[in-house]
C-alpha cells in the first residue's frame, strides 16, 4: 500500500475518500440499527419466537379460548427489559469510543500545527507527540528531540510490559528535526505491507529524494504506546483507526449466552414437540368424540350456534386450542423471573464488601446480568500476567553480603519477626538524594555501611555502576531513573538510598555520589547482556587509576566463573540463595575482578579488532567476554520481590482444587513468565518436567509437541513422597492444597512464534491435547489476537466454559472471545474493564466470584428451573387429563382468573426468594471445600436428565391432583346431602390442592430459610385464599356480574370436611414419594454437598474452633531476576552516546555492540550445576557435601478436604 505524506508540496495525493481516518468503534449498535439487531438477537431465543407464535394464534377467535393480552403484555415486558439492559451496556461503549476519538492531537496542516481530534487524523498526516502522550495512530517516526532520532516508548497497552523500548528514526528523516517548514515540505511515499495484527513485525520502504530506505518495526510508533523520556517527536500516520495494529488485535463484540440459555432453547423445542403430541392426541380424541357422541350431546345439552359438520375440522381447531391452553408448561413468566434473579445476583456481586478494594476505592461490578450462573461452570481460566497476577512492582527485599543476610528483623531474644506495614523502617534522612518511597527494615545494613565495611560498600558500589539505567534530574536532588527493566531500577534505587547515588553518565564516564562525595569513574567497556550469557559486566577505572570489572547475573552462570578462594563464601551464599528462592524472591549474584593493566590493554585491543569485523563478530565477542569474566571474587547476592497481587498463590491453588485449569497468556518474555509462575506456585520444582516449545518451523513445533505428549502418556509415574503422605493420612480431614494441585506433574511453556505454527489447522489438535495433559500452560510473547485464538480453540474443541481475565488493552480481544470476560482495574487503563462482563480490583477476588457467587448463582438457577418446570407441568397437565372427561372440548379445569394469577401472584414470589437467597452451604465452606464447584463444571444440577425427571414428577403430581379429587368427589355429597361434584367446586378443590402442594414442595426444595422465604410462602397462601374468597363473594359479583358469576363457590366447597380430607390426601400422595427418594439418596449415596451440609450442621452445634491456613515448607529453585527481565542492546546505546545530548560530537567508544549469536532454544538450567563442578574440583560427590546441598525451602498452604471422605476426590 502506498501512503504519500500530506505535505504542502507533495506531487502525489490520495483522495480524501480513499484515506482511512482514525475513528474507532467498539459498540454494537447505533440509533438506527439498535431495534432490528436487538430484536433479532432476542428472537434467537427459541422461547421468544415460541411466544410470538402463540400470540399470533391467540389473535384468531375460532382457536383461542384465552385473551391475547395475557401473552403480549409479558412478552413485551421481557423484550423491553432486555433491550434497555443491552442499550445501557452499548451506551457505555459509545461513551468510551467518544472519549478516545475526541482526544486532541497536534497535526501539521497548511504549514502550521493545529489541534485536531483523533478521529479526524488521516493516513499521511504528520503529527507531533510530546512526552507522556499516547500515540494516536501507527506512525513512522520521522524525528525526535533525542540524539540520532531516538525515542522511548512504553508498550503496556500492547504487550503488558512497562519497561521502556527504543525506537529510532531513519537518519535521512531525523535531520528534519522540529523545523515545521521542512516537515511541511516532506513529500515522501511509504510502500508497505497491508494492515495486520503482528505487533513485532513491519516491512516497508520509504521513497524520498530519489532514494529507497527500508523500514522495520524499530521505526514505528504503534497506537496505544506512550511516549516516555522524549520531549517531542514527529511521525507520519501509516495506519489509522481500525487498521492500526492495536485495533486489528481487538476482537468483535459478540452476543454472549450461557449454557443454560442454550439448553433452554433445546428444551423449549422439546416441550413444543411434546405439546404437539398432546394436541394431536386430544385433537384425534375430539374428532372421534364429535363423530360418535357429539351430535347426540349437542341436541340434549349444548347446542352450537354454528354446527361444524366436519369432525376433522373440529379436531383441527381443537388442536390449536389445546396448544394455547397447554402453553403454560413454559410460561413467559419464567423468563421474567430468570431476568429478575440474574439482576439480583448481579447486585449481590456489586454489594459484596469482601470484593471491595479500599485503597483504590474500587468495588466489584457485574457489567452484565446474563452470565451469572455461567460463573459456576468455568473449567478454563486464561489470565494475563503483568498487572493481573503481579503488581509489576520490584522491591529490593533482602541481600547476602560476604556471607551475612540482611533484610530480616529479629526481636531482643533473637527470634525472627514477620515484616508487616507496622514494622519500623530504616531512617535514610541522612541522605538528601534518597528515594522517599524506598522501604527497608533491617537497620544492621545501614550500620555496616556507616562502619565502613569494605564488602558492603563494594556491594552497593557495584549496584550503582553495573547497569544501563539513564538518570533524569528535572530539579536539584529530584532524580528519576529510566530503567529498561524494573529489576535494574530496584537495584539502583537500593544503592541510592544506602548512600551510593548514581547521578549522571556520559558515554565514557559514570558519576556516583558515594556517601555525599562525588566520584567519577571512567567507563572503559560494557559487556552487554543477552539471553545466553544471562549476565552483564562493566569495566571502570576509579580515580586512583585502578581498573576493575563488576559483574552481576544469574547465580548458575556466575558461580562457575569464580576464583577458588571464593569457595567457602560460595557455599554460604548458596544457602542464602536457596532461602531467598524459597520465599519466592528473584535472586542475582554479584562479583568483581581487579584487572592487571597489561592484560586489560591487550584484551581491549582485541575487543576493538573484534568490533570491526563483519563475519563471526558475535562469536568472537562472546569468546572475549568469557575470557574477561573469570576468576572473579564473589561479593554476595540480591533478592528482589516481584510483588504478586495479594492472595494470588492461594487463589490459584484453591481454583486448581476446584478442577479449574489456569493458563497464562502473556506478552512478556518467556523467562519472566516462568519466574512469575514459580512465584505463584503454578510451576514447581517437583513437577516431572517443564516442556518448552520454542521451534521456529512447523516441523520443529510438531516434533516437540509430539515428543511431549508421548512422554506424558508413556511415563509410568512412581508414587511420590506426597502420595505416600496421603496414604498415611487417609483418615485425616485436612488435605494439602498444593499436594492436590500437583497431582499432574507436567507443565507446558510455548512462545509466540511457536504458538503461531501450533495454532494452524493441522497442529491445533495436537497442541490442545498436549496442553490439556499438563497441569500448567504458559504462552509467552503472544499477541492479543493469539490470546483470543487460544481461547477460541479451547471453546470450540473442548466445549468448556472459559473465562479470560486481564487489565490492559492487550487483553481486550481474549476478554471478548471467552464465555466470561473479567477486567481488572489496574495500572494499564480501563480498556479491559470497559470490554469485560465483570470487573474488580485484584485477581484474588476471582476466587470469591467463582466459588461463592458463581456457584451459588448456578445452584440457585438450577433449583429454580427444576422447580418451575415441575410446578408448571403439574399445573398444566391437569387440562390434559380433564380433556378425556370433557369431550375434548378444550375446556379448562380452572377458573380463567386462576390461570392468569397462578404464575404471576400465587407462586411467583416463593420461587423468586429461592432463586435469590437459597444456598446449600455457606460462603466460608464454599471456599474451604473447592470440590463443591465441580457439579457446575459437569453440568449435574440442571441438564436434560434433570429436566426429564422434574417433568416426570410434574406429570405424576398432575395425575394425582386430578384423579384423587375426581375419584373421591365423584359420588361425594355435602353435609346436607347436596352434590359437591359441580365443576366449580371441583376446580376449587384441585386449585387449592395445587397451591398447597406447590408451597410444600418449594419448602422441601429450600435449603436456606430466611424471613423472606417464610413471608413469601405463607404470604402467597394467604393471598391465594383471600383472592379466592373475594372472587366468589357477593360484593365483586355486584360490581362485575359477568366476570365473577359463581357466588359462594369457595365458601361452600371449603366448608366441607370431605374437601379438606381430599386436599390433605392429595398433598401427602404428591409429596411422600419425593421425601422417601431424597432421604434414601442422601443416606445411601451422599454427594459432596450432602457431606459438607452434614458437617456444617454438626459444626454449628459444637461451635468448633476455626483453623486457619497452616504453613509448611516446600521445594523451590533459585531464579535469576536480572536474566529474566533484562534486554540486550542498551550497552551499545550508552557507549556509543546515541542516547545522550552533547554540545559537540559524541565521543567515540571502544566498545561495539553485542548481539544474540542467533536463534537458540531456551533451556532451563539446573541450579546444582555449579555445585557439581565445585565438588568435582574437590574430588567429592554431591552426596558427600551436605553443606552445599540446597536446603529446598519455601511454603505450602493446607486446606480442609470434604468431610466424610478419606481422600479428597
TrEMBL record:
It holds the Pfam family Cation_ATPase. This is Phospholipid-transporting ATPase. Mg(2+) binds at residues 384, 386, 807, 811. ATP binds at residues 384-386, 488, 529, 552, 586, 666-668, 781, 787, 810-811. Residues 833-1087 form the P-type ATPase C-terminal domain. The gene is ATP8B4. InterPro entries: ATPase_P-typ_cyto_dom_N, ATPase_P-typ_P_site, ATPase_P-typ_TM_dom_sf, ATPase_P-typ_transduc_dom_A_sf, HAD-like_sf, HAD_sf, P-type_ATPase_IV, P-type_ATPase_N. The chain crosses the membrane at residues 66-84, 267-289, 311-336, 864-885, 897-917, 947-966, 986-1004, 1016-1040, 1060-1080. Belongs to the cation transport ATPase (P-type) (TC 3.A.3) family. Type IV subfamily. Residues 1188-1199 have a biased composition (Basic and acidic residues). Its EC number is 7.6.2.1. Keywords: ATP-binding, Lipid transport, Magnesium, Membrane, Metal-binding, Nucleotide-binding, Translocase, Transmembrane, Transmembrane helix, Transport. Its cofactor is Mg(2+). It catalyses: ATP + H2O + phospholipidSide 1 = ADP + phosphate + phospholipidSide 2. It is found in: Endomembrane system; Membrane. It is a multi-pass membrane protein. The lineage of its organism: Eukaryota, Metazoa, Chordata, Craniata, Vertebrata. One of its GO terms (molecular function) is phosphatidylcholine flippase activity. One of its GO terms (cellular component) is plasma membrane. PANTHER family: PHOSPHOLIPID-TRANSPORTING ATPASE IM-RELATED (PTHR24092:SF80), PROBABLE PHOSPHOLIPID-TRANSPORTING ATPASE (PTHR24092).
Amino acid at each position: 500500500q502506498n501512503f504519500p505524506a500530506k505535505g504542502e508540496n507533495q506531487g502525489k495525493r490520495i483522495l480524501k475518500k480513499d484515506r482511512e481516518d482514525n475513528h474507532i468503534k467498539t459498540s454494537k449498535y447505533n440509533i438506527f440499527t439498535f431495534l432490528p439487531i436487538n430484536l433479532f438477537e432476542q428472537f434467537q431465543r427459541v422461547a421468544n419466537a415460541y411466544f410470538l407464535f402463540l400470540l399470533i394464534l391467540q389473535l384468531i377467535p375460532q382457536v383461542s379460548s384465552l385473551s391475547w393480552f395475557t401473552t403480549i403484555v409479558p412478552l413485551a415486558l421481557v423484550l423491553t427489559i432486555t433491550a434497555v439492559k443491552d442499550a445501557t451496556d452499548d451506551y457505555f461503549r459509545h461513551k468510551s469510543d467518544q472519549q478516545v476519538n475526541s482526544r486532541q492531537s497536534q497535526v501539521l496542516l497548511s504549514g502550521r500545527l493545529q489541534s485536531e481530534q483523533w478521529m479526524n487524523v488521516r493516513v499521511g498526516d504528520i503529527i507531533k507527540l510530546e512526552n507522556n502522550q499516547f500515540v494516536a495512530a501507527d506512525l513512522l517516526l520521522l524525528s525526535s528531540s533525542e540524539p540520532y532520532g531516538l525515542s522511548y516508548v512504553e508498550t503496556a497497552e500492547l504487550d503488558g510490559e512497562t519497561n521502556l523500548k527504543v525506537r529510532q528514526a531513519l537518519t535521512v528523516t531525523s535531520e528534519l528535526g522540529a523545523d515545521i517548514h521542512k516537515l511541511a515540505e516532506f513529500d515522501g511515499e511509504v510502500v508497505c505491507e497491508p494492515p495486520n495484527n503482528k505487533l513485532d513485525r513491519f516491512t516497508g520502504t520509504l521513497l524520498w529524494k530519489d532514494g529507497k530506505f527500508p523500514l522495520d518495526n524499530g521505526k514505528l510508533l504503534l497506537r496505544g504506546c506512550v511516549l516516555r523520556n522524549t520531549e517531542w517527536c514527529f511521525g507520519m500516520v501509516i495506519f489509522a483507526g481500525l487498521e492500526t495494529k492495536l485495533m486489528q488485535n481487538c476482537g468483535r463484540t459478540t452476543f454472549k449466552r450461557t449454557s443454560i440459555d442454550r439448553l433452554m432453547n433445546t428444551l423449549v423445542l422439546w416441550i413444543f414437540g411434546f405439546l404437539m403430541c398432546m394436541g394431536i392426541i386430544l385433537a384425534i380424541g375430539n374428532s372421534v368424540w364429535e363423530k360418535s357422541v357429539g351430535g347426540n350431546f349437542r341436541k340434549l345439552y349444548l347446542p352450537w350456534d354454528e354446527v361444524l359438520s366436519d369432525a376433522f375440522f373440529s379436531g383441527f381447531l381443537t388442536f390449536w386450542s389445546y396448544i394455547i391452553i397447554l402453553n403454560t408448561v413454559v410460561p413467559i413468566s419464567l423468563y421474567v423471573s430468570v431476568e429478575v434473579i440474574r439482576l439480583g445476583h448481579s447486585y449481590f456481586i456489586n454489594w459484596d464488601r469482601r470484593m471491595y478494594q479500599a485503597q483504590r476505592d474500587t468495588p466489584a461490578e457485574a457489567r452484565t446480568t446474563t452470565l451469572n450462573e455461567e460463573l459456576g461452570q468455568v473449567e478454563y481460566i486464561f489470565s494475563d500476567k503483568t498487572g493481573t497476577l503481579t503488581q509489576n512492582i520490584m522491591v529490593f527485599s533482602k541481600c547476602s553480603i560476604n556471607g551475612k543476610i540482611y533484610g530480616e528483623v529479629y526481636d531482643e531474644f533473637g527470634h525472627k519477626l514477620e515484616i508487616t506495614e507496622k514494622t519500623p523502617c530504616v531512617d535514610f534522612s541522612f541522605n538528601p538524594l534518597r528515594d522517599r518511597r524506598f522501604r527497608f527494615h533491617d537497620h544492621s545494613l545501614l550500620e555496616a555501611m556507616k562502619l565502613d565495611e569494605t564488602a558492603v560498600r563494594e556491594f552497593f558500589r557495584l549496584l550503582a555502576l553495573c547497569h544501563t539505567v539513564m538518570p533524569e534530574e528535572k530539579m536539584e536532588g529530584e532524580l528519576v531513573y529510566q530503567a529498561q527493566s524494573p529489576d535494574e531500577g530496584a537495584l539502583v534505587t537500593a544503592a541510592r538510598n544506602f548512600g551510593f547515588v548514581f547521578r549522571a553518565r556520559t558515554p565514557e564516564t559514570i558519576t556516583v555520589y558515594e556517601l555525599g562525595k562525588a566520584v567519577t569513574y571512567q567507563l572503559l567497556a560494557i559487556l552487554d547482556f543477552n539471553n545466553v550469557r544471562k549476565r552483564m559486566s562493566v569495566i571502570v577505572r576509579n580515580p586512583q587509576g585502578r581498573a576493575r570489572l563488576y559483574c552481576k547475573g544469574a547465580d548458575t552462570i556466575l558461580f562457575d566463573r569464580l576464583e577458588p578462594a571464593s569457595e567457602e563464601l560460595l557455599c554460604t551464599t548458596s544457602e542464602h540463595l536457596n532461602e531467598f528462592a524459597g520465599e519466592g524472591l528473584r535472586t542475582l549474584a554479584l562479583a568483581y575482578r581487579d584487572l592487571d593493566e597489561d592484560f586489560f590493554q591487550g584484551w581491549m585491543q582485541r575487543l576493538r579488532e573484534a568490533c570491526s569485523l563483519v563475519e563471526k563478530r558475535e562469536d568472537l565477542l562472546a569468546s572475549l567476554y568469557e575470557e574477561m569474566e573469570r576468576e572473579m571474587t564473589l561479593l554476595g547476592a540480591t533478592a528482589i520481590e516481584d510483588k504478586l497481587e495479594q492472595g494470588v498463590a492461594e487463589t490459584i491453588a484453591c481454583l486448581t482444587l476446584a478442577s479449574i485449569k489456569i493458563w497464562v497468556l502473556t506478552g512478556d518474555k518467556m523467562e519472566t513468565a516462568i519466574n512469575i509462575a514459580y512465584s505463584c506456585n503454578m510451576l514447581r520444582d517437583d513437577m516431572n518436567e517443564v516442556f518448552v516449545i520454542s521451534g521456529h518451523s512447523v516441523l520443529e513445533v510438531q516434533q516437540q509437541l509430539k515428543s511431549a505428549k508421548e512422554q506424558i502418556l508413556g511415563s509410568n509415574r512412581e508414587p511420590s513422597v506426597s502420595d505416600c503422605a496421603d496414604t498415611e493420612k487417609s483418615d485425616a480431614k485436612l488435605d494439602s492444597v498444593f499436594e492436590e494441585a500437583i497431582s499432574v506433574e507436567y507443565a507446558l511453556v510455548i512462545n509466540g512464534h511457536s504458538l503461531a505454527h501450533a495454532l494452524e489447522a493441522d497442529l491445533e489438535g495436537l497442541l490442545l491435547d498436549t496442553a490439556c495433559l499438563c497441569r500448567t500452560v504458559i504462552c509467552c510473547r503472544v499477541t492479543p489476537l493469539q490470546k483470543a485464538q487460544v481461547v477460541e480453540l479451547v471453546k470450540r474443541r473442548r466445549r468448556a466454559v472459559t473465562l479470560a481475565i486481564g487489565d490492559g488493552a492487550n487483553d481486550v480481544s481474549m476478554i471478548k472471545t471467552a464465555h466470561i470476560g473479567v477486567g481488572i482495574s489496574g495500572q494499564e487503563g480501563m480498556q479491559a474493564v470497559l470490554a469485560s462482563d465483570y470487573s474488580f480490583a485484584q485477581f484474588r477476588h476471582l476466587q470469591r466470584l467463582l466459588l461463592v457467587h458463581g456457584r451459588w448463582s448456578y445452584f440457585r438457577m438450577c433449583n429454580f428451573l427444576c422447580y418451575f418446570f415441575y410446578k408448571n407441568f403439574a399445573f398444566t397437565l391437569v387440562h390434559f387429563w380433564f380433556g378425556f372427561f370433557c369431550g375434548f372440548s378444550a375446556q379448562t379445569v380452572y377458573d380463567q382468573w386462576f390461570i392468569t394469577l397462578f404464575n404471576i401472584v400465587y407462586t411467583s414470589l416463593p420461587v423468586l426468594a429461592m432463586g435469590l437467597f437459597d444456598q446449600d452451604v455457606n460462603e466460608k465452606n464454599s471456599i474451604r471445600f473447592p470440590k463443591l464447584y465441580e457439579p457446575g463444571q459437569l453440568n449435574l444440577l440442571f441438564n436434560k436428565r434433570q429436566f426429564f425427571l422434574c417433568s416426570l414428577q410434574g406429570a405424576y403430581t398432575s395425575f394425582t391432583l386430578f384423579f384423587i379429587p375426581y375419584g373421591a368427589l365423584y359420588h361425594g355429597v355435602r353435609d346436607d346431602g347436596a352434590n359437591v361434584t359441580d365443576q366449580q367446586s371441583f376446580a376449587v378443590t384441585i386449585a387449592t390442592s395445587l397451591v398447597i402442594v406447590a408451597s410444600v414442595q418449594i419448602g422441601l426444595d429450600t435449603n436456606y430459610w430466611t424471613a423472606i422465604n417464610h413471608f413469601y410462602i405463607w404470604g402467597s397462601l394467604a393471598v391465594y385464599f383471600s383472592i379466592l374468597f373475594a372472587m366468589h363473594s357477593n360484593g365483586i359479583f355486584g360490581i362485575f356480574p359477568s366476570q365473577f358469576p359463581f357466588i359462594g363457590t369457595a365458601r361452600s366447597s371449603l366448608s366441607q370436611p370431605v374437601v379438606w380430607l381430599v386436599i390433605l390426601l392429595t398433598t401427602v400422595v404428591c409429596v411422600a414419594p419425593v421425601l422417601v427418594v431424597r432421604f434414601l439418596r442422601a443416606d445411601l449415596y451422599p454427594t459432596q454437598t450432602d457431606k459438607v451440609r452434614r458437617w456444617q450442621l454438626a459444626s454449628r452445634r459444637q461451635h468448633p474452633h476455626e483453623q486457619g491456613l497452616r504453613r509448611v515448607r516446600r521445594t523451590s529453585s533459585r531464579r535469576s531476576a536480572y536474566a529474566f527481565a533484562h534486554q540486550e542492546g542498551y550497552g551499545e546505546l550508552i557507549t556509543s552516546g546515541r542516547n545522550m545530548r552533547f554540545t559537540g560530537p559524541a565521543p567515540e567508544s571502544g566498545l561495539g555492540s553485542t548481539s544474540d549469536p542467533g536463534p537458540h532454544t531456551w533451556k532451563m538450567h539446573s541450579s546444582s550445576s555449579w555445585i557439581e563442578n565445585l565438588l568435582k574440583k574437590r574430588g567429592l560427590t554431591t552426596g558427600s557435601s551436605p553443606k552445599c546441598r540446597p536446603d529446598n525451602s519455601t511454603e505450602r498452604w493446607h486446606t480442609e478436604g470434604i468431610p466424610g471422605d478419606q481422600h479428597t476426590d
